[in-house]
Amino acid sequence: MTTCIVAALDVELARIKEDLQARSAGTAGRSPYYIANLNQEPIYLATIGVGIVSAAMALGRFLAEIEVDQLIMTGSGGALPGSGLDVGDVAAASVEILAELGICDGEGVADASSLNLPGLNQTISLDEDLGNSIVETATKTCTVCLGAFLSVAGVSSCSGHALARAARFGALVENMEGYALALAGMRFGVKVAEVRGVSNLAGVRDKSTWNLDLANARAQSVVLNYLRRRC
Length: 231
Prior knowledge:
231 residues; alpha/beta; Rossmann fold; 6 helices; 33% strand; globular
């Protein structure tokens, strides 16, 4: 089985690359990727950039060039109100919802269903079996919460913004690339999963309360634990 691990930024892959002793393997477009082997199974790692558009373009180019069986995204995200998550917790996505897709009726909140356009999906499911496998293998060292993720073009600017998004979509965390992953999985027929560490509470812009290093470290630890147990 061929696995690919992707993240928006190099720092979100750094521990995995070091642990697996990944080596540079080229670029897909201008997005660098690396390759490693674990128990004789190839594992690719790719940096896809920040935001839905960058991630979608990079994933499309990569999957058009390299055939993989499963694709796992790792990174950080902001915990939405009501999620029960705090900084340092880890979550895995069951679905990705694109917050602004459709008719906007509030700041960063929209509804695509009323447009009634064929093939327009505001919510896309990720692979259930792969997601459950990651959660199950992670519980030995770290509890992972499984639920809906919200992809956004711009993160919540204040607590009111975050509350409105939480009330509408009932998601655990907001992020900026996950919908591209879900769409790529659907279009290319690849199993996809997403793991994120909570770096901050959505809508809280005081970065003294954030911990990106902890969020990224824990998300990568969960992915590594899955790889070691399944590959």
